[in-house]
Design a protein that fits this description.
CATH class: Mainly Beta
Number of domains: 1
CATH superfamily: Avidin-like
Strand content: over 45%
CATH topology: Lipocalin
Largest sheet: 8 strands, antiparallel, barrel
Order of helices and strands: EEEEEEEE
Radius of gyration: 13 Å
CATH architecture: Beta Barrel
Structural class: mainly beta
Distance between the termini: 21 Å
Strand order of the largest sheet: 1-2-3-4-5-6-7-8
């Protein structure tokens, strides 16, 4: 797979474990400088969130996240994402995550690049 640059890309939640908060109404805005990834996200049950992490040589992502949900609860965790290139050229990220504050357990989610 060719090197992916995530800078300026937008993603939307597609699926999530029941204990997750990302939904189809959650939009992620990615920025990348070198191997550093930062993102903001909001929508659905999330008022505002931030991510920071690394883009690895194999295009996978490892990051920490934190957000405030619509009930005013602060939550945080960490996530690993593996990219897949869809037939139309968009990126799908298969994610595994773990709550570290404010939520319980671990889970899996899928986000896809918005057109």
């Amino acid at each position: 797979m060719a090197k992916i640059n995530y800078h300026g890309r937008k993603f939307r939640g597609i699926s999530n474990s029941p204990n997750g908060q990302v939904s189809g109404n959650t939009i992620f805005n990615y920025s990348q400088i070198g191997d550093k990834l930062v993102a903001t996200y909001s929508g659905g049950g999330i008022l505002e969130g931030h991510m920071i992490g690394h883009v690895h040589e194999d295009n996978s992502l490892a990051f920490v996240y934190h957000h405030i949900d619509t009930d005013g609860v602060m939550k945080s965790g960490h996530c690993k994402s593996t990219p897949e290139i869809l037939p139309d050229g968009r990126i799908r990220l298969q994610e595994t995550w773990l709550w570290t504050f404010g939520g319980e357990g671990d889970g899996a989610s899928v986000v896809e690049e918005c057109i």
